[in-house]
Amino acid sequence: MKALLLTPVFALAAGAATAAPVKFDIEPHHTYPSFEADHMGLSIWRGKFNKTSGKIVLDQAAGSGTVEAHVDVASIDFGHDKLNAEMVEPKYLDTGKFPEAVYKGKLAGFKDGAPTRVDGELTLHGTTKPLALEIKRFKCIDKHPYYQRQACGADAFATFKRDEFGVTAGKDYGFDMTVTLRISIEAVAEKTDPSQPSL
Questions:
Q1: Hey, where are the domains in the chain?
Q2: For the chain, where are the E strands, in sequence order?
Q3: Other Cβ atoms closer than 10 A to 155
Q4: What's the pLDDT at 133?
Q5: How many Å apart are CA 123 and CA 184, to the nearest integer?
Q6: Weakest mean pLDDT among 17-26, 97-106, 110-119
Q7: Which of 10, 27, 35, 42 would give a disulfide with 186, using CB separation of 3.0 to 4.6 Å?
Q8: Class of 20-189 per CATH?
Q9: pLDDT (tens digit, 9 = 90+) per residue, 15-63?
């Protein structure tokens, strides 16, 4: 009888141990890396990047995973056309030379199957530096109502000094070099059925 009672427990443990990591594609229509930056202490500039792609691998049972995100820097959007045009010039982000920002990291600090941070590196303006993201909210659903497969979403936060990445415009005028990142991200499991909608 004892053996019969323990059998389901062992089966569940074996299933958790052998659960395969799930591969996700970043969903570009609901992913927005947004930011805040100082303007001489007079105001805060806020904007976002409109084009992001990448991959996430998540193993909730093992408490592990990876993130790789690619951001089209020229898609910067302040809601102000003139400012958008200025930011891609060599004086600022120089997107002709550095068209892409890349973030790579490992999901960490798991609690109840959900990561609480990402330990990674940001490559921006040709420079790579460590950057940890704090995950303030994380949730997965088994079946996205449109894509018909598993999906996960998160809200992440970080700060960094832009002059450490060579983006120094305004420093001589007293601009605070601190940039605050607030990242809304959704990702959908890779297709397993050709009939499932693509991203």
A1: 20-189
A2: 22-26, 32-39, 43-49, 52-59, 64-72, 76-77, 100-108, 117-124, 127-141, 151-161, 178-189
A3: 14
A4: 98
A5: 19
A6: 17-26
A7: 27
A8: mainly beta
A9: 444 468 999 999 999 999 999 999 999 999 999 999 999 999 999 999 9
* Greater pLDDT, 12 or 86: 86
Helix (H, G, I), strand (E, B) or coil at 166: coil
pLDDT at 108 over 50: yes
Cα–Cα distances in Å, from 198 out to 26, 31, 154, 168?
A: 12, 16, 21, 40
DSSP string, 137-159: EEEEESS-TTT-S-EEEEEEEEE
Q: What is the pLDDT of residues 170-183, one digit of tens each?
A: 999 999 999 999 99
Amino acid identity, residue 117?
Answer: R
Closest C-alpha to 69, from 165, 180, 156: 156
What CA–CA distance (Å, rounded) separates 164 from 162? 5
Nearest CA to 75 out of 30, 105, 32, 44 is that of 32
Residue 115 CA to residue 109 CA, distance in Å, equals 5
Q: Which residues pair with residue 127 across a beta bridge?
A: 124
Residue 91 and residue 59 in contact, taking contact as beta carbons nearer than 8 Å = no
Residues 124, 94 contacting (CB under 8 angstroms): no
Share of the chain above pLDDT 70, in %: 90
Q: Which two tokens stand for residue 67?
A: 């993130």
